[in-house]
Amino acid sequence: MAKVIAVNISELRGMVKHPIEQGFFKFNYGLVGDAHAGGWHRQVSFLGVESIDKMRSLGAQDLREGKFAENITTEGIILYELPIGTKLKIGQVILEVTQIGKECHTGCEIRKLVGDCIMPREGIFARVLSEGWIKAGDSIAIDGGKY
């Protein structure tokens, strides 16, 4: 079963995110209090713990949820295989996938450490269609069904 491992936030852009107990995801905005939230197509970022484990296997140490600046760390779903437009339901929150991957920032700490960064290939982005609270442990339904 696909589930949320962590909800992560950063108050400033360019900073590593840190886990919080729960977050409020506002309609057409994103995670309230997060520096990357706003009225654009990348309101919420996701990365799977499976992707983080790939970086650990390359020698990156001290990796934890939020280190790749993802708002939601997941488990049990291959995020980057979801088509654009896929809807994810987490609790009362409905999110729509808008982008797969992104350009990596120059000077990325992870890239410097191990020569690679997984977020540009395996991270996804979404916009909030229906607002509500998300916390670690919440299950994730995809397009109305369980993954």
Q: Biggest sheet: strands side by side, in what order?
A: 2-1-6-5-9-8-7-11-12
Classify the helix fraction into a percent range: 10-25%
Mind describing the biggest β-sheet? 9 strands, mixed
Shape: globular
Please tally the helical runs, counting DSSP H or I stretches of 4 or more residues: 3
| Mean pLDDT level | 86
Furnish the topology, listing elements before pairings.
Elements: E1 3-9, E2 18-20, E3 22-26, E4 30-31, E5 44-48, H1 49-57, E6 72-75, E7 87-90, E8 93-100, H2 109-114, H3 119-122, E9 124-130, E10 132-135, E11 140-142, E12 145-146
Parallel strand pairs: 5-6
Antiparallel strand pairs: 1-2, 1-6, 3-4, 3-10, 5-9, 7-8, 7-11, 8-9, 11-12
Summary, kept brief:
This protein is mainly β. It contains three helices and twelve strands, in the order βββββαβββααββββ. It has a nine-stranded mixed β-sheet with strand order 2-1-6-5-9-8-7-11-12.
